[in-house]
Design brief:
about 100 residues; mainly alpha; about 75% helix; about 0% strand; membrane; transmembrane
Length: about 100
């Protein structure tokens, strides 16, 4: 008796996991998703901190709200920082390669 294992994606969409892994997300799409997720996290952090001021007892922020704000700032800062750093380093590498190639 031969057992055939079929995944959900293969049945519903006709994809195998090999085909799913072979799909590559474009770089601009990836950067856009990262940027918008960081902006969303910043908005969430500001919103929850504002709610912490409004919810009784008024004027006091609970430690958990500050912790969530710290996590959102850490996430957003790392996304923006890594993007800027990699873009800067890639620009330096491209400039170095362009300078070393013989001029036509």
């Amino acid at each position: 008796m031969k057992v055939i294992v079929v995944s959900f994606y293969e049945v519903k969409y006709g994809y195998t996991f090999a085909k799913l892994n072979a799909k590559v997300m474009r770089s601009d799409k990836k950067d856009s998703v990262a940027t918008w997720s960081a902006v969303g996290m910043l908005a969430f952090g500001v919103g929850i901190t504002t709610a912490g001021f409004i919810i009784p007892p008024s004027g006091e922020i609970h430690d958990s709200v500050l912790w969530v704000l710290g996590q959102t700032l850490l996430y957003s800062g790392s996304i923006f920082g890594i993007t800027l750093y990699t873009n800067h380093k890639l620009g330096e590498i491209e400039e170095t390669i362009a300078n070393r190639l013989p001029k036509k």
